[in-house]
């Protein structure tokens, strides 16, 4: 696997434009130009992580607009798999040169992406890794550009474990269970808790959603009043857990951790409402994928290797040291 740092030495080939709506930007003007046409297809743009991803692509476009065109799409609900499949089909019909996709499901998108590749379209997978077994069944190879989610979650879990003692009880808010990144974050959390001798007494999927996490976390607190911490597989669910903990009057004795480093959770870390999260550099993740896609457009014979991007622990101390602004 190539390191992320190899990307830093590559020539800047990127451009982009982005939007926070489901309506694609770049549109007809992009499709009518002679520049390479790249479609960025994301999950829910209601989630700050993905709107930040779109903003990062847009910022890069402003610096390199003469080099390629970018059409940005997103779905309103991360569970709307049929809509994301439809977006892939739409971009194939539009004749784009590449699709960079953060799939809402690790399995369901593979057949449509195989069809895109059969049309000669470059496909790059970001954020949530496509299922290896399904890729093999479909006889298709698609490079993954993104972080090691299990390692990132273990960093967060290990940090939480320093505030717990052996035998303490915790609960986990999982992402969508058919998403590889959700599975890997769960594995990282469980590994850290097992190594620390901490007991996971409840682990349920809130499907990445804040409101659902609020409801489930409230139920967890009611059923297991002795839990000491909640590990949320993304920051939206961590925000839901904050609300549940506050409603239960337990803000002072329940630790919460998340994953994604959105601005609202940075503020919560500073305020002591969240202990830690993981930063997978959402503002650059689409850019990493686009750069890979443009290399493959320029040289179709190039090997489409996976690219591991960074993921770092974020705490009150690291935020203070970096001077990150809210």
Automatic annotation (TrEMBL):
Localisation per UniProt entry: Cell envelope
Keywords, comma-separated and alphabetical: Signal
Signal sequence range: 1-20
Pfam entry (one): Peripla_BP_4
UniProt-listed InterPro entries: Peripla_BP_I (IPR028082), SBP_2_dom (IPR025997)
Gene Ontology molecular function terms on file: carbohydrate binding
Record carries keyword Nucleotide-binding: no
Membrane-spanning ranges: none
CDD domains: PBP1_ABC_sugar_binding-like
Signal listed as a keyword: yes
GO cellular component: cell envelope
Residue ranges of every copy of the Periplasmic binding protein domain listed in the record: 38-298
Main location: other
Family, similarity comment: Belongs to the bacterial solute-binding protein 2 family.
Protein name from the UniProt record: Sugar ABC transporter substrate-binding protein
Organism, as annotated: Roseiconus nitratireducens
């Amino acid at each position: 696997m190539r390191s992320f740092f190899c990307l830093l030495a590559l020539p800047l080939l990127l451009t982009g434009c982005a939007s926070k709506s489901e309506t694609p930007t770049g549109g007809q003007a992009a499709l009518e130009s002679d520049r390479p046409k790249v479609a960025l297809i994301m999950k829910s743009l209601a989630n700050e992580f993905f709107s930040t991803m779109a903003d990062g692509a847009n910022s890069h476009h402003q610096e390199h607009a003469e080099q390629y065109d970018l059409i940005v799409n997103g779905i309103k609900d991360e569970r709307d798999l049929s809509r994301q499949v439809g977006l892939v089909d739409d971009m194939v019909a539009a004749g784009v040169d590449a699709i960079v996709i953060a799939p809402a499901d690790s399995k369901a998108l593979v057949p449509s992406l195989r069809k895109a590749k059969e049309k000669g379209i470059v496909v790059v997978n970001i954020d949530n890794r496509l299922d290896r077994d399904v890729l093999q069944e479909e006889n298709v190879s698609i490079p993954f550009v993104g972080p090691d989610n299990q390692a990132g979650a273990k960093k967060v879990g290990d940090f939480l474990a320093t505030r717990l003692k052996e035998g303490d009880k915790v609960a986990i808010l999982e992402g969508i269970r058919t998403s590889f990144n959700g599975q890997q974050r769960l594995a990282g959390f469980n590994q850290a808790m097992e190594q620390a001798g901490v007991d996971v007494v409840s682990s349920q999927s809130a499907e990445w959603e804040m409101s659902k996490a609020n409801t489930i976390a409230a139920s967890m607190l009611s059923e297991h009043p002795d839990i000491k911490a909640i590990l949320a597989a993304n920051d939206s669910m961590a925000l839901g857990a904050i609300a549940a903990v506050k409603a239960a009057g337990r803000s002072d004795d329940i630790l919460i951790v998340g994953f994604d480093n959105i601005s609202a959770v940075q503020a919560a870390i500073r305020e002591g409402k969240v202990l830690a999260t993981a930063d997978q550099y959402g503002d650059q993740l689409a850019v990493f994928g686009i750069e890979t896609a443009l290399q493959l457009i320029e040289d179709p014979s190039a090997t489409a290797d996976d690219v591991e991007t960074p993921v770092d622990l974020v705490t009150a101390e690291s935020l203070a040291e970096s001077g990150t602004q809210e």
